[in-house]
Design brief:
The chain is mostly helical and 163 residues long. Helix content is 66%, strand content 0%. The longest helix has 26 residues, at 55-80.
Length: 163
């Protein structure tokens, strides 16, 4: 099967496993169209209370979510028999949260962070494209979105610096 194969179709049955519930973004990954975008939107919803933590606890949450995500995404991909099924969106959560590290407050910055993360996640400039092709398993699923989040974070901070 190809790297981003969409078979099998996800159903609510898949959410009965608590690990899959997380992997499929609390259900957002079940969206038939643009599950990565829907997963990122759910990541935004989870981000809203996380942003109040302060920088150090927020960074701790990201690191913990990344480490857990390696297992979570690997578990779901093994159950589905597809390396990086589009419905696995935990990686979008973590990538978006990375984008928003030390982001300025306000809805405009939240929207800009969302757009930047989705652009880098879809466009996949180097080294995102390399990681997407070369790294297998849960780490591979997580790594391209982490790198997209880093690219988006850098862009967001540069824009914030000059605005």
């Amino acid at each position: 099967m190809s790297h981003h194969d969409q078979a099998p179709v996800l159903t609510f049955e898949h959410l009965k496993d608590p690990v899959n519930f997380l992997a499929f973004g609390l259900g957002s990954g079940l969206a038939r169209k643009a599950p990565g975008t829907w997963g990122t939107l759910m990541g935004v919803a989870v981000y809203l209370p996380l942003q109040m933590l302060g920088l150090v606890p927020y960074l701790f949450v990201i690191v913990a979510a990344f480490i857990a995500g390696i297992y979570i995404c690997d578990h779901a991909s093994r159950q589905l028999g597809v390396h990086d099924h589009g419905g696995i969106v935990w990686d979008e959560f973590v990538g978006f949260w990375i984008t928003m590290i030390a982001a300025p407050e306000g809805w405009s910055w939240l929207v800009l962070g969302f757009i930047l993360f989705r652009l880098f996640d879809i466009w996949k400039p180097w080294p995102i494209s390399w990681a997407d092709r070369q790294v297998e398993g849960g780490m591979g699923i997580m790594l391209d979105d982490v790198l997209a989040g880093v690219w988006a974070l850098v862009c967001l901070q540069v824009i914030a610096y000059f605005v």
